[in-house]
Amino acid sequence: QVQLVESGGGLVQAGGSLRLSCAASGSILSINNMGWYRQAPGKQRELVASVTSSGRTDYVDSVKGRFTISRDNAKNTVYLQMDALKPEDTAVYYCNADIRSYSRSINYWGQGTQVTVSS
After folding, report:
1. DSSP 85
2. Which of 36, 87, 76 is nearest to 58 (CA)?
3. Cα–Cα distance, 30 to 7 (Å, whole number)
4. What 3-state class would DSSP assign to 80?
5. CA–CA separation, 58 vs 99, rounded Å?
6. Confidence label for 8 from pLDDT (cuts 50, 70 and 90)
7. Half-sphere exposure of 95 (CA within 13 A, CB side)
8. 63 φ, ψ (degrees, to nearest 5)
9. Contact by Cβ (8 Å): 95, 78
10. Across residues 44-57, what is the average pLDDT?
11. Burial letters for 14-31: b for 16+ Cβ neighbours within 10 Å, e otherwise?
């Protein structure tokens, strides 16, 4: 059984910072791509940032220069450092990872963590 457990969400004023963490646990052989998605009320879930196993990163245009994704492969953990937050960043943030257990690779989701940015 594999789980993704997120932490670090909360309420912050515009211009502030938050750091999200997502730790994978369970029967893990390897982890390929890891990423963070977000979903605001009434909107579709969107990919915010992703990082490959080799460390290549990608970001949605709206967060470039403000958010930084990173991972610690020894800890099976991915982070999202969010700086210069804006009210439009308010959403539930979800961790996502492609995890190989035993003989197959499965895509997993975290439970979500609320990020609220006040103006």
Report:
1. -
2. 36
3. 22
4. strand
5. 19
6. very high
7. 27
8. -115, -5
9. yes
10. 97
11. eeeebebbbbbeeeeeeb
Q: Are 94 and 110 in contact (CB under 8 A)?
A: yes
Read off the amino acid at residue 33. N
The pLDDT value recorded for residue 103 is: 79
Q: Which tokens belong to 8?
A: 């670090």
Q: Give the count of alpha carbons within 13 A of 35, CB side only.
A: 19
Q: What one-letter code names the amino acid at 43?
A: K
The conformation of residue 74, written as its DSSP 8-state character, comes to G
Tokens of 87: 């009210």
83-118 pLDDT tens trace: 999 999 999 999 999 999 987 899 999 999 999 999
